[in-house]
Design brief:
This protein has 113 residues and is mostly beta strands. The protein contains no helices and eleven strands. A hairpin with a 6-residue loop joins strand 4 and strand 5. The N and C termini lie far apart (40 Å).
């Protein structure tokens, strides 16, 4: 049974940083596209960043503007999202997605002073 478990969310002040992690079990990370999405109440889930499994191309949502970096550690079956320069509008539940099919349970990120 393939499972994704996110961690690393929390409360941070504007301008601060967080590093989200997503550990994949029951499958091999390199076999799939892997990405991060986020959602706030009443708003459709939006893509934050992803890594293409074939060529390693990384994609970022237009709102990221160079603040976030996605990376993966294949040996640990883990993908990370380093988020710097956080803004209050980045407050959301962040979800890890594998192969456009499997989802993690989400981790809350709150940016507030």
């Amino acid at each position: 049974q393939l499972q994704l478990v996110e961690s690393g969310g929390g409360l941070v002040q504007p301008g601060g940083s967080l590093r989200l992690s997503c550990v994949v079990s029951g499958g091999t990370l390199d076999d799939y596209d892997i990405g991060w999405f986020r959602q706030t109440p009443g708003v459709e889930r939006e893509g934050v960043s992803c890594i293409n499994r074939v060529d390693g191309y990384t994609y970022y949502g237009s709102f990221v503007k160079g603040r976030f970096t996605i990376s993966k550690d294949s040996a640990k079956n883990t993908v990370h999202l380093q988020m710097n320069g956080l803004k209050p509008e980045d407050t959301a539940v962040y979800y890890c997605n594998l192969g456009d099919y499997w989802w993690g349970q989400g981790t809350q990120v709150t940016v507030s002073s």
